[in-house]
Design goal:
Blueprint: H1 2-20, H2 30-46
Helix pairs in contact: 1-2
């Protein structure tokens, strides 16, 4: 759980930039954006 928390914590700082990019410019396209939303929400709940 700690490792996941650290990963989500770091990711939280990257999400704003990632979400601004068009899906086609992302490595996994729209699938990556869908995967990022749960992490973004989790980071928001953590206050990151």
């Amino acid at each position: 759980a700690l490792l996941a928390d650290q990963i989500l914590g770091r990711s939280g700082h990257l999400h704003p930039e990632i979400m601004k990019r068009p899906p086609e410019r992302m490595p996994l396209g729209p699938y990556r954006r869908k995967l990022m939303w749960p992490l973004y929400g989790w980071a928001a709940l953590r206050g990151d």
